[in-house]
Amino acid sequence: MFELLDILGTMAFAVSGALTAMNKKMDPFGVLIIAFVTSVGGGTLRDVLIGRTPVGWMLNINYVYVILIGFALAMVFRKKLDRFRKSMFLFDTIGLGVFTLIGLEKGLEKGLEPSVCIILGTVTACFGGVIRDILCNEIPVIFRKEIYATICIIGGLFFFFLKSLEIPEDVLYLMTSMIIIAIRLMAVTFKWSLPTVDKN
Asked: Which residues, if any, are the signal sequence (predicted)?
């Protein structure tokens, strides 16, 4: 189940990146590159930070295939995908929860402090989108309106709280994912956001 959710999240991020690139009127190669960095940019940065090389997607070619499929779907069905925005949002949200957990686990494998693991979880889930927005000449979404990164941090804190209670691992993963997904859905539904900072 965890691997299936990882694949769905990767594909959702690939489609999201591809659609963003198409809105910027990029050529097919540009669209593919943006789809790729959106999907694996966060995980690549995480692996570089913890000295895990070759990085994850280089060791598992299935990630490349999933991204190529997401890219192809976005190219072929780009005019129809608007009808599936809610479904794509759901997959994106699932990806957010799963990628946060993957980052947390990679940090724990390295024996890092909980606070550093939470940072790695946030980087894994969010920084593909940051790289996408920078390459598309946009201020990254997580820095201007949605509480995207904040949700990952809350999920990470919840993860370590449950871990301290010695809850079984499967339940721990499930409950952490569910809290991230639930907060994300509520944040979008109720338009939660952090206040902007004005120099005046």
From this structure: none
For the chain, the structural domain boundaries read: 1-190
Encode pLDDT of 19-53 as tens digits.
Answer: 888 888 999 999 999 999 999 999 999 999 999 98
Exposed / middle / buried, residue 151 (Cβ in 10 Å: 0-12, 13-18, 19+):
buried
- Any idea what DSSP says for residue 51? T
| Residue positions counted in the chain | 200
Backbone phi, then psi, for 50, in 5-degree steps? -100, 5
Consecutive H or E run containing 113:
none
Measured between its terminal Cα atoms, the distance across the chain in Å is 49
pLDDT digits (tens, 9 = 90+) for 103-134: 999 999 999 999 999 999 999 999 998 999 89
Task: Name the nearest CA neighbour of 118 among 170, 171, 157.
Answer: 157
Q: For the whole model, what pTM was predicted?
A: 0.86
